[in-house]
Automatic annotation (TrEMBL):
GO terms for molecular function: DNA-binding transcription factor activity; transcription cis-regulatory region binding. It comes from the Bacteria. Signal peptide: none annotated. Residues 51-70 bind DNA. Pfam families: TetR_C_14, TetR_N. This is TetR family transcriptional regulator. The lineage of its organism: Bacteria, Bacillati, Actinomycetota, Actinomycetes, Streptosporangiales. Keywords: DNA-binding, Transcription, Transcription regulation. InterPro entries: Homeodomain-like_sf, HTH-type_TetR-like_transc_reg, HTH_TetR, MftR_C, Tet_transcr_reg_TetR-rel_C_sf. Residues 28-88 form the HTH tetR-type domain. The keyword DNA-binding applies.
Length: 212
């Protein structure tokens, strides 16, 4: 059952949003509106049956505007607006925190707000990515070119290394691995488990050296 997010989640999320430059905030709001219309149509009539033209009509935008924000229909499911907000929160963490602890602290600021605010949307998007073959393939491409690259950039900044350093790259992939593990566990529970808690537990496990 869909529920509205509590006011505290909206207010605190907007606080993080306001820290971004105006241009970035405007882009994020437009992306969010397009994605909300797309996910509603996917839920109503199925992913394959929904066209870009239908999404544009629902969002009252032109196809050129759609493709400015999402290169393909797959990207409207795969992409999200949260990387810039997470990166801003990560960079604000105390300098004496290592990369995993800084990431955990940033996620504790951002992810519960996203979860309260966008839980149904996150669930719809995740299920689509796991069940639609084209989306599964696009998801891994996006992880490599987007999320992993962003993680490597953040880790490199905090450790004084180059983003292309092999250890930085391996570290970023390890973080993605434990995040994906949390996501699968959440889906396997039919979304009854607390996803932010699962993510934090897995990152704590990674910080321990994955010791069993």
């Amino acid at each position: 059952m869909s529920t509205s997010p509590p006011e505290w989640a909206l207010d605190r999320f907007d606080e993080h949003l306001q820290r971004l430059p105006l241009r970035e905030r405007k882009k994020l709001r437009t992306r969010r509106a397009i994605q909300e219309h797309a996910l509603r149509l996917f839920a109503e009539q199925g992913y394959a049956a929904t066209t870009v033209e239908q999404i544009c009509a629902a969002a009252e935008i032109s196809p050129s505007t759609f493709f400015r924000y999402f290169p393909t229909k797959e990207d409207v499911v795969i992409d999200d607006e949260y990387d810039p907000i997470l990166m801003e929160a990560f960079r604000r963490q105390p300098a004496d925190l290592g990369p995993i602890e800084a990431l955990r602290a940033a996620l504790k600021e951002i992810f519960p707000l996203v979860y309260e605010r966008e839980r149904e949307g996150v669930l719809v998007r995740t299920r689509l990515m796991m069940t639609e073959p084209a989306l599964r393939a696009r998801m891994f491409d996006a992880m490599r070119s987007g999320t992993q690259k962003a993680l490597a950039t953040m880790i490199a900044e905090r450790t004084g290394r180059d983003p292309g350093d092999q250890r930085v790259q391996a570290f970023a992939w390890a973080v993605l691995g434990v995040l994906m593990s949390a996501m699968y566990a959440w889906l396997d529970s039919d979304a009854t488990l607390d996803l932010p808690a699962l993510v934090d537990e897995n990152l704590e496990f990674l910080a321990s050296g994955l010791a069993l």
